[in-house]
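Hi,

I'm pasting everything inline rather than attaching a file, because the server keeps stripping attachments. The sequence lines come first, and each chain or strand is labelled.
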Amino acid sequence: AQKVTQAQTEISVVEKEDVTLDCVYETRDTTYYLFWYKQPPSGELVFLIRRNSFDEQNEISGRYSWNFQKSTSSFNFTITASQVVDSAVYFCALAENSGGYQKVTFGIGTKLQVIP
Amino acid sequence: NAGVMQNPRHLVRRRGQEARLRCSPMKGHSHVYWYRQLPEEGLKFMVYLQKENIIDESGMPKERFSAEFPKEGPSILRIQQVVRGDSAAYFCASSPNAGTGGRDEQFFGPGTRLTVL
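And the predicted assembly:
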């Protein structure tokens, strides 16, 4: 069965600090997708990134970067020079094939608070 | 192309009433998924539907909950005789195809926040 673990339930950082959110996953599939979503206080889910299991290249998008390591089944997310607007709950998710369709499993989320 | 739409965004019900949550998938999408997010928790899969068919309802409580996706109109998640424990955010997602290995990404709606008094 697939599983996503976000061990950090809450993190507080001071503005401009860098912060890394950890995500460890379990799956028996060789083909799968990993995601990060942001959920601001307003409650909607904001898609941040999707990465397939065959692409281990790290990705950078502005202040955001992602480190995918298959050897440790981790897909960590780093925010550089954090800002107050980054305060939100961040979810890591795993999608794998389940009887011909994708089934998405979410982690419990990491609540990030950026203090001005 | 409008995104996934859900209504209402907020719904308040008293214990014992019925709650109906609607989801209009993105244009061209024929696959709908419902997820529930209990307070302080991640999203949990409830049910997956294609037009007029329930494909997987393994995550849906056996009693009081039902879902449909008719040929015409939105998908409906129906909760009968609501209880306080049903208070949660209910998210709908849609995809153009079922995909394998997650090739067809699910696009999420803004969610419906159900409060049971």
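DSSP finds no helices and twelve strands in chain A.

If the labels don't parse on your end, tell me and I'll reformat.
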